[in-house]
User: What shape does this take?
Amino acid sequence: MRNQLVAGNVYHTGETEEGEGGVDMHKDSITIVNGQLVTPFEVMPGTVVIEDGIIIYAGPHDKAPKRGPIWDAKGAYVTPGLIDIHVHGGGGGDVMDGTLESLETMSKTFSKYGTTAFLPATVTASHLELLQCVAAVKQAAEHGTGGAQVVGIHLEGPFINDSKKGAQNPEHIRTASLDELKEIWQEAGSLLRLVTLAPETEGALKAIQLLRSWGVTVSIGHSDASYEKVMEAQRWGASHICHTFNGMRGLHHRDPGVVGAALTCDDFSIELICDGIHVHPAAMKLALRAKGVHQLVLVTDTIRAMGLAEGRYVFGGLEIEVSGGAARLMTGALAGSTLSMAKAVRNAMKWLGVSICDAIRMASLNPARTINLEHRKGSLVVGKDGDLAIFDGDINTIATIVGGRVVYEA
Assistant: This one.
């Protein structure tokens, strides 16, 4: 007998938790059938089984065990959950609010677009404000959220170059302080996963060395560094480029700058804000040709206004206006985005001409690898966290599953 649970998609196949009907029910367990499984290499029909929050099977339907309720994907794409490692806000919440409530709002908002994990990103602010944000992120990570999972923190600034500040508040830009970083590490510990800084500023190279000793990924951004300085930073341990092409010295044939280093150094993974506003599609294609699919990381850089009406908002203490899908300071400078990860995937397929496998990889496995979480997240592999997104053919979200729990259903 089938007991309907959710909108015709989920049903039990047995009447008892174990034995009768052959179903072994587990907490945070679910079986997704009739899906088109998206791997980094191919799309294949099959089933995913999650038990106690972990993937225990991903493959052909006829060999799959049954755990928990069954979700009929009805031929939709079943992908690893999307992972956003550069996000400032959404749905009215902002990381700099420094509260669990705002992070919860962001979590539930992002889950509507297939995102199952994210790194809240700070902006340039006082040390006290940053510590408050770190404390809130730690609380959210430890206590859990109702949507996408908080998996750490991305410290963007304050150790950046004023000449490439973008929408960062110039009042709080300062030289790199090892003492500040040590206090942040003392509060965050391993939750400090990504730090963006400008390597040409005073004390930056020693900061890179310290961060790498803790296992933190170091990103170069808001930087006016020369090509040579970026390559020096790479030798000290920097391995990632923040929102490539934006907030950095551009490419010139006699002065390759940050962009030149990003595109030619094989040791750098690079972020792309694939909204058609921050980066022209032709520049995105150039990045793809230079780096290959495996080194591109789709991010949103989204702000509080994401998912809300256009109008005026505050970002990092600065007034911004959202109009025509773009967020800008009153000076006209770009100030984050209102992009979703699902739309970034859709745009990558449209403008870069990549397959759904490649686009999903850039939004799941690649970001997981960048912040050293690929052993837990980013692909439909046995032993990884049961984080999945179910999309229709136009990459609209049908459902989002975090740790075996359905946190969003369209």
Summary: Residues 127-143 form the longest helix (17 residues). Residues 3-80+382-409 form a domain with the Urease, subunit C; domain 1 fold (CATH 2.30.40.10). Confidence is low (pLDDT under 50) at residues 1-8, 10-26.
